[in-house]
C-alpha cells in the first residue's frame, strides 16, 4: 500500500448519506414523541412571534413589500428546517441582505431581484453538492465582524428617513455619501409623531430586554405603537398608506422573467447573494452548535439554503438565509429539532391568514425603530474592542472591510478583507519557522530516557564535528521557504553529513519541497550525505515527488538511526 492510499485508509471520506442526510431524518430516526413535539411547537411559536415584525421590517428596508418578507419567512423558513443540516437553524429574510437586495432592486427591478435570488439558490446548491461548504469557514473573523458592522451602519442610515418621518423632494439615494446630504436637506420636514413612535419602539424593546428578557419585545413594541397611532390618530405613514396592506394568502408560484441578457446582468448580484447567504447560514449553524453541543452538516445546510432561495423566488419572496437571532431564540425556547423551525413557518402562515388586515395599521416609524435595534445589535462591540486591543493587523483588516462595506461595495469588501487576512496569516506563519543547528552525539549510548531512549538535542554535550544537524520547526511553505533555504545554503564543506530533522514540521508545500531539492543538489555536489529524519508519510511523499528519492537523501524515523547509519558508512 503506497503512502497516499495509507493516508486515505486512516481517514476515510464520509459517504454521501453522511454529508447530505437532513437533520430532520436523523431526529425522526432517534424517535419522536408527543413531548418533543410540544417542545418544538412552543419554540416554533416563540420564533414566529419574533420573526413576524422582523420579516416585514427587513423586506421594507430592502425595497420590497412587507408581505414579501412574510412569504420569505414561511417558504424559506420551512424548507431550511426541513432539508437543512442543522437541528436548530431557522431561516428567513436577514438584515445582512438589506444592502444587496435594495441595490439589486434599484438596478434591475423586482423581477431582477427574483431572478438573482433564484440563481443564488442554484449556486448555493452547487456549492453544497460540490462539498465546498467546508471552505466558507476560512473567512477571517475580522472580515466577518467588519462587514457585519458595516451593514449595520448602512441599515441604520437607510432607516433615518422613516425614523424622523422625513419628506424628501426626490427618490432617496442609495450610496451613503449621497444619502446623507439628501436627508440633511429634508430635516425641516421632521415629523414629531414619527420620532415619538420610533423612540417608544426602541425604548420598549430595550426595556423589556432588561426586565422581561423572555417576552417578545419586538412584537409587543410593534403592537403597542400601532394601537397608539390608531387611537390617537397620529399623522404618520403606515403599511396601509404606503403599500396598500398585506394579502392574507400566499401568492401562486411563478418563474421570474428569464433572458440571457438578464441572467448576465444579475449574475454578479446572484454570486454576492450566494456568498453572503453561505457565510451567514453557516455562522448561524456554528452558533447553534456552540449553544447545544451538536454538530451541523455544512454542505447539507447549503443545499437546503439553495432550495429555499429558489422556492422563495418562485413565490415572490426575497433572499433566505439562516439567521442567528431567530436560531438562538429557537434554542433558548427549548426546541428539540428541525420540526420547531417548520412549525415557525406554519404559525407565520396562520398569522398571515388571520391577521393580515391588522398589519396595515403598523407605522413605518415603528418598523424603522425595530431595524434600528437590529442595526445596533449587528455592531459586535465586544468583538471590535477585542480586535483593537489584541492585534493591530486584525484591526486594520476590520477597518478596511468596514469602510469598504459602508462606502464602496459589500462583495468588494469581503474579497479585499479575505486577501488582507490571508496575507497577514502568511506573514505570521512565515515568521514562526525556525531552523536550529544542533550537534550530533558521538556515542549512541548518550540517550535520553525521557525521549524513549532516542537521542535528545543538547548542543552542550559532546558532538561529532563531521555531522551537522538542523531541526526545522513550524510550517515549511512558500512564505518561509526562502528563509530556510538561506540558512541551509551556508553548509560548510568540512562536514561529511547533513541531517535535517522534520519531526516538528507541520506542513510542507511544493515550494518548500523544491527548495529542499536544491539543497540536495548542493550537498551531492559537495559529497555531503543528506539524511532526513522524522518526516511524516505525507511530507516524505512530497519530498520524493520533487526529486528527493532514495538516491538524493536517506530517510529515517529518528535522529540516532540516521547517525548510526552514517557511522556505519563512514
UniProtKB/TrEMBL annotation:
<dbReference type="InterPro" id="IPR002645">
    <property type="entry name" value="STAS_dom"/>
</dbReference>
<feature type="transmembrane region" description="Helical">
    <location>
        <begin position="387"/>
        <end position="407"/>
    </location>
</feature>
<feature type="transmembrane region" description="Helical">
    <location>
        <begin position="67"/>
        <end position="83"/>
    </location>
</feature>
<feature type="transmembrane region" description="Helical">
    <location>
        <begin position="345"/>
        <end position="375"/>
    </location>
</feature>
<dbReference type="Pfam" id="PF00916">
    <property type="entry name" value="Sulfate_transp"/>
</dbReference>
<dbReference type="InterPro" id="IPR036513">
    <property type="entry name" value="STAS_dom_sf"/>
</dbReference>
<dbReference type="GO" id="GO:0055085">
    <property type="term" value="P:transmembrane transport"/>
</dbReference>
<keyword id="KW-1133">Transmembrane helix</keyword>
<feature type="transmembrane region" description="Helical">
    <location>
        <begin position="302"/>
        <end position="325"/>
    </location>
</feature>
<protein>
    <submittedName>
        <fullName>Sulfate permease and related transporters (MFS superfamily)</fullName>
    </submittedName>
</protein>
<feature type="transmembrane region" description="Helical">
    <location>
        <begin position="215"/>
        <end position="234"/>
    </location>
</feature>
<feature type="transmembrane region" description="Helical">
    <location>
        <begin position="270"/>
        <end position="290"/>
    </location>
</feature>
<dbReference type="Pfam" id="PF01740">
    <property type="entry name" value="STAS"/>
</dbReference>
<keyword id="KW-0472">Membrane</keyword>
<feature type="transmembrane region" description="Helical">
    <location>
        <begin position="180"/>
        <end position="208"/>
    </location>
</feature>
<feature type="domain" description="STAS">
    <location>
        <begin position="457"/>
        <end position="566"/>
    </location>
</feature>
<feature type="transmembrane region" description="Helical">
    <location>
        <begin position="41"/>
        <end position="61"/>
    </location>
</feature>
<dbReference type="InterPro" id="IPR011547">
    <property type="entry name" value="SLC26A/SulP_dom"/>
</dbReference>
<dbReference type="GO" id="GO:0016020">
    <property type="term" value="C:membrane"/>
</dbReference>
<dbReference type="InterPro" id="IPR001902">
    <property type="entry name" value="SLC26A/SulP_fam"/>
</dbReference>
<feature type="transmembrane region" description="Helical">
    <location>
        <begin position="90"/>
        <end position="106"/>
    </location>
</feature>
<keyword id="KW-0812">Transmembrane</keyword>
<feature type="transmembrane region" description="Helical">
    <location>
        <begin position="112"/>
        <end position="130"/>
    </location>
</feature>
<feature type="transmembrane region" description="Helical">
    <location>
        <begin position="142"/>
        <end position="160"/>
    </location>
</feature>
Amino acid at each position: 500500500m503506497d503512502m497516499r492510499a495509507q493516508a486515505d485508509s486512516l481517514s476515510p471520506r464520509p459517504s454521501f448519506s453522511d454529508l447530505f442526510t437532513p437533520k430532520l431524518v436523523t431526529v425522526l430516526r432517534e424517535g419522536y414523541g408527543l413531548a418533543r413535539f410540544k417542545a418544538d411547537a412552543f419554540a416554533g411559536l416563540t420564533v414566529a412571534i419574533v420573526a413576524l415584525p422582523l420579516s416585514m421590517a427587513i423586506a421594507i428596508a430592502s425595497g420590497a413589500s412587507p408581505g414579501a418578507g412574510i412569504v420569505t419567512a414561511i417558504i424559506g423558513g420551512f424548507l431550511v428546517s426541513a432539508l437543512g443540516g442543522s437541528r436548530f437553524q431557522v431561516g428567513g429574510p436577514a438584515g445582512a441582505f438589506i444592502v444587496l437586495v435594495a441595490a439589486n432592486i434599484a438596478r434591475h427591478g423586482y423581477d431582477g431581484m427574483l431572478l438573482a435570488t433564484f440563481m443564488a439558490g442554484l449556486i448555493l446548491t452547487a456549492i453544497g453538492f460540490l462539498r465546498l461548504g467546508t471552505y466558507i469557514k476560512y473567512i477571517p473573523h475580522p472580515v466577518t465582524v467588519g462587514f457585519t458592522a458595516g451593514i449595520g451602519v448602512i441599515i441604520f442610515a437607510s432607516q433615518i428617513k422613516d425614523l424622523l418621518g422625513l419628506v424628501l423632494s426626490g427618490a432617496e439615494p442609495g450610496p451613503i455619501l449621497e444619502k446623507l446630504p439628501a436627508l440633511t436637506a429634508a430635516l425641516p420636514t421632521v415629523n414629531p409623531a414619527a420620532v415619538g413612535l420610533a423612540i417608544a419602539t426602541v425604548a420598549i424593546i430595550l426595556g423589556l430586554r432588561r426586565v422581561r428578557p423572555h417576552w417578545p419585545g419586538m412584537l409587543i413594541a410593534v403592537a403597542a405603537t400601532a394601537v397608539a397611532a390608531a387611537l390617537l390618530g397620529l399623522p404618520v405613514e403606515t403599511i396601509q398608506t404606503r403599500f396598500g396592506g398585506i394579502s392574507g394568502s400566499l401568492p401562486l408560484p411563478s418563474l421570474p422573467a428569464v433572458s440571457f441578457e438578464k441572467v448576465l446582468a444579475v449574475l454578479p448580484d446572484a454570486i454576492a447573494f450566494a456568498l453572503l447567504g453561505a457565510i451567514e447560514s453557516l455562522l448561524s449553524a456554528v452558533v447553534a452548535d456552540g449553544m447545544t453541543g451538536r454538530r451541523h452538516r455544512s454542505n447539507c445546510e447549503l443545499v437546503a439554503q439553495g432550495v429555499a432561495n429558489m422556492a422563495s423566488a418562485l413565490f415572490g419572496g426575497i433572499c433566505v438565509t439562516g439567521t442567528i437571532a431567530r436560531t438562538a431564540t429557537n434554542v433558548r425556547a427549548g426546541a428539540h429539532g428541525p420540526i420547531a423551525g417548520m412549525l415557525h413557518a406554519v404559525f407565520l402562515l396562520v398569522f398571515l391568514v388571520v391577521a393580515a388586515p391588522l398589519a396595515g395599521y403598523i407605522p413605518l416609524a415603528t418598523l424603522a425603530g425595530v431595524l434600528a435595534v437590529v442595526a445596533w445589535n449587528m455592531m459586535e462591540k465586544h468583538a471590535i474592542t477585542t480586535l483593537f486591543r489584541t492585534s493591530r493587523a486584525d484591526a486594520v483588516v476590520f477597518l478596511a472591510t468596514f469602510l469598504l462595506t459602508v462606502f464602496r461595495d459589500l462583495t468588494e469588501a469581503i474579497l479585499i478583507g479575505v486577501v488582507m487576512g490571508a496575507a497577514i496569516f502568511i506573514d505570521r506563519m512565515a515568521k514562526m519557522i525556525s531552523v536550529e543547528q544542533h550537534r550530533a552525539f558521538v556515542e549512541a549510548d548518550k540517550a535520553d530516557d525521557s525521549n524513549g531512549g532516542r537521542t535528545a538535542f543538547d548542543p552542550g554535550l559532546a558532538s561529532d564535528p563531521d555531522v551537522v544537524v538542523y531541526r526545522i520547526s513550524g510550517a515549511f511553505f512558500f512564505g518561509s521557504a526562502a528563509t530556510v533555504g538561506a540558512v541551509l545554503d551556508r553548509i560548510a564543506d568540512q562536514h561529511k553529513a547533513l541531517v535535517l530533522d522534520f519531526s516538528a514540521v507541520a506542513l510542507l508545500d511544493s515550494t518548500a519541497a523544491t527548495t529542499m531539492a536544491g539543497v540536495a543538489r548542493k550537498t551531492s555536489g559537495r559529497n555531503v550525505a543528506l539524511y532526513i529524519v522524522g518526516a511524516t508519510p505525507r511530507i516524505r511523499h512530497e519530498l520524493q515527488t520533487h526529486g528527493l528519492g532514495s538516491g538524493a537523501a536517506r530517510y529515517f524515523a529518528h535522529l540516532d538511526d540516521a547517525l548510526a547509519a552514517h557511522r556505519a558508512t563512514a
